[in-house]
């Protein structure tokens, strides 16, 4: 009961109204009076404290006064530090690149060179293990018909020496759409042919495989040497089905179309013809 009375008494005191009066000391004239409860005074003091705190924080955050506070950095100094940090990082990268260049140069001069090109395994793009490279019945019949016809002989005719390769019959390496034609001025010494996925790449003429391997720029490449100093090159394959030294017939599958090599951006065949050491336009002799 005593605790309840104390609580009741405290609540009554907070609700009880008091008057604060300011009098003139000489005339006892009432100059100012304030009538309020202790709870009201507490609320007023709290509100004034909050407002003053907000004003002080605003002055520090949004005015130059913050620069006079110990430990509070200047914005321009912080920008300068960030710029210096970026420059230091750039210098570190430049030094690292130069060190790597010097190290590589020393390795080349000393003969201690290693290949930095990672050769992917066969069928890096697709699983072509299930694909058979045996010629179909239609291909076999077509090959027999062509071999039996003298006018389609794959060797030079008995014409004069200047007849060149006009008497050759070229198989199309792949049936598709030519997306980039031969252009000597641009340094594009062949044609790019887009075809369906896993399409066979076939030999354009009878010949011997003189190169079959991987290059970083052109991916899997196979190169055939034909009669009369004629050479055909097939680039960006996903797989190669022949080895160096193999003799192939015209129309025989030698590779599978792909998208290998740094210079390739899509699945296609880059096909080149070279005659007497000079590139010639394959579209003048092959119908794709």
Shape: elongated
Q: In whole angstroms, how far apart are the ends? A: 109 Å
Number of domains: 2
Low-pLDDT sequence parts: 150-163
CATH class of the largest domain: Mainly Beta
Q: At CATH's second level, what is the architecture of the largest domain?
A: Distorted Sandwich
For the biggest sheet, the summary is: 8 strands, antiparallel
> Would you tell me which CATH topology of the largest domain applies?
Glucose Permease (Domain IIA)
- Report helical residue fraction: 25-40%
Could you give a quick summary of the protein structure above?
The chain is α+β, with helices and mostly antiparallel strands and about 290 residues long. It has four helices and 13 strands. Strand 12 (about 270-275) and strand 13 form a beta hairpin.
What does this structure look like?
With 288 residues, the protein is of the alpha+beta class. The protein has 2 domains: 2-68, no CATH class; 137-284, Distorted Sandwich (Glucose Permease (Domain IIA)). 30% of the residues lie in helices and 24% in strands. It has 4 helices and 13 strands.
Key attributes of the depicted protein:
single chain; 288 residues; alpha+beta; Glucose Permease (Domain IIA); 2 domains; three-stranded antiparallel beta sheet; 4 helices
Fold topology:
Blueprint: H1 2-15, E1 18-23, E2 30-36, H2 38-62, H3 75-110, H4 137-148, E3 177-180, E4 190-194, E5 200-202, E6 207-215, E7 219-226, E8 230-237, E9 239-240, E10 247-248, E11 253-256, E12 269-275, E13 278-280
Antiparallel strand pairs: 1-2, 3-4, 4-12, 5-11, 6-7, 6-10, 7-8, 8-12, 9-11, 12-13
């Amino acid at each position: 009961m005593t605790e309840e009375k104390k609580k009741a008494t405290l609540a009554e005191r907070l609700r009880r109204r008091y008057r604060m009066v300011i009098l003139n000391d000489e005339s006892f004239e009432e100059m100012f009076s304030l009538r309020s409860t202790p709870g009201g005074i507490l609320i007023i003091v709290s509100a004034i404290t909050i407002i003053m705190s907000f004003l002080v924080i605003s002055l520090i955050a949004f005015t130059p006064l913050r620069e006079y506070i110990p430990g509070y950095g200047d914005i321009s100094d912080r920008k300068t530090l960030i710029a210096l940090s970026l420059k230091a990082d750039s210098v570190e990268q430049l030094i690292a690149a130069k060190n790597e260049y010097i190290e590589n140069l020393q390795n080349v001069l000393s003969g201690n060179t290693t290949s930095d090109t990672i050769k992917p395994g066969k069928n890096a793009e697709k699983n072509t293990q299930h694909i058979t490279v045996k010629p179909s019945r239609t291909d076999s019949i077509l090959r027999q018909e062509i071999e039996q016809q003298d006018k389609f002989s794959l060797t030079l005719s008995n014409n004069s020496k200047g007849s060149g390769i006009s008497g050759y019959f070229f198989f199309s390496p792949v049936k598709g759409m030519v997306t980039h034609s031969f252009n000597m001025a641009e340094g594009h010494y062949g044609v790019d042919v887009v075809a369906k996925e896993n399409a066979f790449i076939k030999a354009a003429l009878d010949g011997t495989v003189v190169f079959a391997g991987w290059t970083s720029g052109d991916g899997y490449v196979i190169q055939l040497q034909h009669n009369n100093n004629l050479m055909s090159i097939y680039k960006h394959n996903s797989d190669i089905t022949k080895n160096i030294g193999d003799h192939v017939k015209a129309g025989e599958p030698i590779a599978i179309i792909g998208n290998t090599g740094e210079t390739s951006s899509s699945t296609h065949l880059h096909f080149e013809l070279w005659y007497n050491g000079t590139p010639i336009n394959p579209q003048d002799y092959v119908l794709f």
